[in-house]
Amino acid sequence: MNKKLKMGMVGGGIGSFIGDVHRKAAGIDGMISLVCGAFSSSEEKSITSAEAIGISKNRAYGSFEKMIKEEAKLPEDERMDFVAIVTPNHMHFPPAKMALEHGFHVICDKPMTLTLEEAVELEKIIAASGKVFALTHNYTGYPMVKQAKAMIAKGDLGTIRKINVQYLQGWLSTALEKTDHKQAAWRVDPKRSGIGGALGDIGTHAENLVEYITGTQITELAADLSAFGEGRTLDDDGNVLLRFANGAKGIMTFSQIATGEENNLGVKIYGTKGSIEWYQENPNELVVRWLDQPKQVFTPGGNGGYPESSDYVRIPAGHPEGYLEGFATIYRSFAKELLLTKEKQPSAQHDFPTAKDGVRGMKFVYAAVESSQNNARWIKM
Amino acid sequence: MNKKLKMGMVGGGIGSFIGDVHRKAAGIDGMISLVCGAFSSSEEKSITSAEAIGISKNRAYGSFEKMIKEEAKLPEDERMDFVAIVTPNHMHFPPAKMALEHGFHVICDKPMTLTLEEAVELEKIIAASGKVFALTHNYTGYPMVKQAKAMIAKGDLGTIRKINVQYLQGWLSTALEKTDHKQAAWRVDPKRSGIGGALGDIGTHAENLVEYITGTQITELAADLSAFGEGRTLDDDGNVLLRFANGAKGIMTFSQIATGEENNLGVKIYGTKGSIEWYQENPNELVVRWLDQPKQVFTPGGNGGYPESSDYVRIPAGHPEGYLEGFATIYRSFAKELLLTKEKQPSAQHDFPTAKDGVRGMKFVYAAVESSQNNARWIKM
Amino acid sequence: MNKKLKMGMVGGGIGSFIGDVHRKAAGIDGMISLVCGAFSSSEEKSITSAEAIGISKNRAYGSFEKMIKEEAKLPEDERMDFVAIVTPNHMHFPPAKMALEHGFHVICDKPMTLTLEEAVELEKIIAASGKVFALTHNYTGYPMVKQAKAMIAKGDLGTIRKINVQYLQGWLSTALEKTDHKQAAWRVDPKRSGIGGALGDIGTHAENLVEYITGTQITELAADLSAFGEGRTLDDDGNVLLRFANGAKGIMTFSQIATGEENNLGVKIYGTKGSIEWYQENPNELVVRWLDQPKQVFTPGGNGGYPESSDYVRIPAGHPEGYLEGFATIYRSFAKELLLTKEKQPSAQHDFPTAKDGVRGMKFVYAAVESSQNNARWIKM
Amino acid sequence: MNKKLKMGMVGGGIGSFIGDVHRKAAGIDGMISLVCGAFSSSEEKSITSAEAIGISKNRAYGSFEKMIKEEAKLPEDERMDFVAIVTPNHMHFPPAKMALEHGFHVICDKPMTLTLEEAVELEKIIAASGKVFALTHNYTGYPMVKQAKAMIAKGDLGTIRKINVQYLQGWLSTALEKTDHKQAAWRVDPKRSGIGGALGDIGTHAENLVEYITGTQITELAADLSAFGEGRTLDDDGNVLLRFANGAKGIMTFSQIATGEENNLGVKIYGTKGSIEWYQENPNELVVRWLDQPKQVFTPGGNGGYPESSDYVRIPAGHPEGYLEGFATIYRSFAKELLLTKEKQPSAQHDFPTAKDGVRGMKFVYAAVESSQNNARWIKM
């Protein structure tokens, strides 16, 4: 019998957006079972969440420290296999470090840590631990993102010369943080978010997405960050010039004050032979333009898709998959790798974001802030 | 502790499209756990599937009869709560009847049965059983479908006058049934599909969708069915004139030989004050046109949505939900109703398709076939 | 010096929608000059229009009879070359007949005539006259329509099996004819429109478009026409089953009570190898789906277009052409043919709708009305 | 009789893209008649063009100097009223200056001149002449652009905070200038184009469009220009950070090496209450997002449009207008103003781009080049 991997969760009590997303995403493919959680720093609230979620209240803890210690004492076939960290940014490093040091694998929300220093340290801890670590840059889980990546890797688009990326949201257009809105509150608070606002929250997704798809890296950037919301100390909007290792140039724009936008992450990438365009809000279409052929539209599992993409499609073409499925793909690849590790087999190089991506993300945040503080001076990454 | 409902499955062995969809859909909201299955008529294959899926091989059965009998003997807190039937059409009625008669609730794929007679009989059996029965007309689970339904129910669009629906697929454009393609094979076989081909497979979805959204019913129809594929005895394409109880007129077109189409179910419904347009392949947009205001586009959880829609949204606006989530909504509503029944509480009228929809669907199939056999004569439904 | 062809207009005084369209369309390519007009049955109003338009008041007439007689007396290099008829339907036949019989070529708005009898007679008169006659089924002038036609003619899509067409407008959703709205008034008046309402006005466009693109013809139809507007005697909505000479089946839906729709003419045509989809409101995209390749999107003058299409493109790809340009293409092809006739050269078979299309359109109207009066019985065309 | 304004053309012989555009655009509204031209620097070629176009060969000149001198000698009701300049950039200033000084009005293609100095001088010459001067920044002629401008001017979108603009073409992705392609040749040649390549050709359109729509101005910019094409000395791609007078921030990206793009000019502008999105390739849709209402889509002449937009619509909603009509709107407004001037009436402030826009455009080009030469340092405009 193919037993499910056992997940413990840090954060993500009932009412949390991202905690629920992680639970649903972990559940879709039937490989993972949530068995315990430190859902809140209040044990009582943690138990309430556990009951609502449907797990035993004996496995609800009031702190991640307690969860890790107690679970470590349980028999191997009972205790959790890995920890999912879904807290605000300042609470990523501590539980990740402790879990790894107690022999647990870790899957963590992004950005990886509060500071670049933490990110660098965590990467070392992970390497030393021999455990599997995944970072939920979930947008890389979409089949059409994988199709774009495969097309570029195979040279279909020729040499990449222009890379534009946008991540536009409008939910902080008003002073939501001054209402009773928990997510807004910590997002605008440097103590919990770090030195980046929208930059850390969504800019890192944009950075990760273009580096993932193109296979090249940002070498330097010039960023003009703004805090339009009154009283905000962290950026809620940014425009960035980009230069890439392969000679490409690009531009990034991100915002949480782009009124009326919901979650409009999109990329346009131009090569010498062709180009791609993709938007997260309509994720099942990949537009490909060619030098001398009509424009094409690829779909998940549809005609002409590469195995690198179609292997990640769960249902036939025309049956749209969404955000949760893309997120689930990260969980599934992490789970497959974890199973190999558990069985002491060699890695199959399953495709999911790792500590390396996490460090890149934090370097990006630090470079952009430094640039912006210097009136958009070029900063190397 | 909020224990999960226990599901047993009939059909849906590894490699089945719809079995996997049911499993994933049942799993998303964390309310249901698959505990047993008669995944195949071969016990050996059933066990193989059970192992791949990750359930105990003791609970893998070689027939639905055996599953129902054996499970009924288990202690109440161990045995399955309900049966999910995911077999071809001819195998819907027998397991549904037996399960209900042994005290199990049932969720069944559509169309409800092989024949109209079976559908009428099953409706009676369900009523007599006091059990919960759901039919997976999954497209009614999409939030934007529920938004459309709510807008019409509230009178926002005025009196409905015109109802157009299409369901276009191309997967049977070639003679796929002559290759080693299981799904194509039973779809074109009257013994397993019944008297409707594309009509029963997707026409019933179209019929169900427009009746669900508009709240009115088809009273008569004139159908021109075709079997374009060489040697096919069942229709693979159809065009239908529709008249509705409220005076509206309409048109339906469905096809499985619409080359290049993936799963293009769409509706356009026109009232005296406004109209709606929705497509399943891009399910997170509902276009609403008005008599004297600019066109609007509603999104799940977005501005202006009614609670009747937004209550069914799992993640914030802009984070697309897809086919599995819509399907999961049917499972979740069924599960909620089942829990009430288990706890002997009154029904909360949770919104999911039932036997009534199943009988309508079979009446539609029979009326369309009779009409088409009489050169598209009007047939009352 | 390449002198411009001289146009006389019947109807189309200032304030007329379609008269202005004809003038602008005739003007775009610089081959035609408006020199005279019977813009109104009031000579005074006709002069007012002439002055506003910028032509000599000496060439403004109070009746088409007078215009034709007076112009015929002018020297050849001064008098009009052809008549453009832009009046309501009941005033198409009389001026067309008289103009042809006085040696003038004719371009006429659709439907060709008030009655089928007139259409048949006019076709004979045209043939006998040796003059050029064009019917402004303007939608055939769009480059992407021509691309679709060429692809089908070349067999790119294989055998055509399914033909769906819609023409949806909402401007008669309310009782506009009871306000001071001239166009609505004559459109709902059988004396001026004929036996078809929306059927004649836009249904004929839909019929013409699918026969033009596919090269096959409707052989029989079953129509369910409705007059939703209170007190209307002519249809304002219709749904039609179609059967074609080549074995294809299809469906047509048209409406002028489709609330919120502007001018939504669209076709979906499916062959054994591929299919096309095109909408007039976004005329510069032709979606082509294939059996085994990704969906393509063709654009006017863009990659992969056939000369049969790109020859009709005025400006580079990405510079949208619209309704007036499509209309102008009819005028230009008519003008080229007319020049050949003038110079007594053989026809170059320039591509524009003729009397044959006009007779088809009237037959369609008559068949649909007869079918609808017989409860959607099949009527041969 | 309302006589047509008489146009003389400099450049634009047969085969020229933009000359033909100007002719068609000038012709659509029936207010302007082409009477003469210096279509080529070869008198013979100029005559050939004149004949093909259909104007008298007596009015075909071998140089703009000759045209201006000869026409000036003609009687007032015979000679041209204004000059349309459609030559490469280096040939804008000389004919414009001479025409103005000889009493002719001028309409000129963009960018206004070869150099900023010329632009500043030309602005002075125009002011001194009392003649009407229009610059064909044609994209401001689209009704949906005017709707966007009106909505912002009325405060519907609140305070503008974020302004993104793109202008993406792919036609110079390959070394087209090394083939026999006249337009490519002069576009990459600093002697004929000036110091900006794509920057001057399309970047100025982007700059003009956002300043037109928003009513605010770029105050400083940081530009990263590239010449990807081998051997090119002028930019063929650029990314620019923008800061605006009203405090808004923005980003511009333009390219002529964006493979597969046709003419993808688009803007996204975000205010505190709402935002707009518009694309030139689909110009008849204006998407408006709101803080707390569903997204709307405005159409020319459609529901909810302001007179500031609908006054510029020629045909009913749903009948798409395109590039030529937008261009024609510039011509029409210029013509109306010219008529007032001719009749010595006060200006009605008709809305078309003028020398002021031309100077802004050249300042933008100079600032961007200076910035890019200084590694994207901020330059004030």
Question: How would you characterize the overall build of this protein?
Answer:
- 4 copies of one chain form a homotetramer.
- In chain A, helix 1 links the parallel strand 1 and strand 2.
- Chain A has 381 residues and is α/β, with parallel strands linked by helices.
- Chain A is 36% helix and 22% strand.
- The model of chain A has no long low-confidence stretch (mean pLDDT 96).
- Chain A folds into 2 domains: 5-139 and 328-354, Rossmann fold (3-Layer(aba) Sandwich); 141-315 and 360-380, Dihydrodipicolinate Reductase, domain 2.
- The longest helix of chain A has 20 residues, at 323-342.
- Chain A has 12 helices and 14 strands.
- The A-C interface holds A 288, 290-299, 302-305 and C 288, 290-299, 302-305.
- Strand 13 of chain A pairs antiparallel with strand 13 (295-298) of chain C, so a sheet runs across the interface.
Q: Overall pLDDT of chain A, averaged? A: 96
Q: What is the CATH class of the largest domain in chain A?
A: Alpha Beta
Portion of residues within helices of chain A: 25-40%
Going by helix content, strand content and strand pairing, the class of chain A is: alpha/beta
What is the straight-line distance between the termini of chain A?
Answer: 48 Å
Instruction: Find the biggest chain interface.
Output: A-B, 49 and 49 residues
Q: How many β-strand stretches of chain A?
A: 14
Outline the low-pLDDT stretches of chain A. none
In quaternary terms, these chains amount to: homotetramer
- Give the domain tally of chain A: 2
CATH third-tier fold name of the largest domain in chain A: Dihydrodipicolinate Reductase, domain 2
Largest sheet of chain A: 9 strands, mixed
